[in-house]
Amino acid sequence: MDRLDLKRRLIERCRKLQQESIDNTRAEMEDAQDSAYEHQPRDQYDSYRDQMMSKRDMFAKQLQQSLEQLKMLDTIDATKKINAVDVGAVIITGDQKIFVCIGLGKFELDNEIWFAISPFVPFFHALRGHKKGDAIMFREKKIVILDVF
């Protein structure tokens, strides 16, 4: 399979996963808001409405962060060839297949397990700048980079 085609498909899969997260968060936010507006207070000490509005605000903050991550994902150029670990890199190690984009965690593409990691996690910082064939120690484990693109 063409490397750049794989990277393009990884971006598409991550976009889809992130969009699903955005849609779910938006629905939760709207549900909390609707619950707050529909609630009829039983007495002056009933705090249910305040709780639902706080919940809505929490989901609104999560939604904003998710939208920012989607924008970050959109900045990754699938046509750019990468020789060293950096944002947008696909990294193949002896144990894992990793895509450096946003922190989505474990997902499946073409019956293979992938990990989408953020460029803000310690694992990325340990790998950053390393090339194919390099070996690093991370948390007392040797990691050999089999390929980077």
Overall 3D shape: elongated
Contiguous uncertain segments of 5+ residues:
none
Radius of gyration: 20 Å
Note the run of SSEs as H and E.
HHEEEEHEE
Distance between the termini: 13 Å
**What does the average pLDDT come to?**
95
Main structural class: alpha+beta
How many domain units? 2
Relative strand content = 15-25%
Main beta sheet: 6 strands, mixed
Provide a count of the helices. 3
Q: Would you count the extended β strands for me?
A: 6
Strand order of the largest sheet: 3-4-2-1-6-5
What share of residues is helical? 40-55%
What would you say this structure looks like, in words?
This protein is an alpha+beta fold and 149 residues long. The protein has 2 domains: 3-74; 90-148, no CATH class. It has 3 helices and 6 strands; from the N terminus they run ααββββαββ. β5 and β6 (141-148) form a beta hairpin. α1 (3-38) runs antiparallel to α2. The longest helix is centred in the N-terminal third of the chain and has 36 residues, at 3-38. The chain is elongated and about 70 Å long. The model has no long low-confidence stretch (mean pLDDT 95).
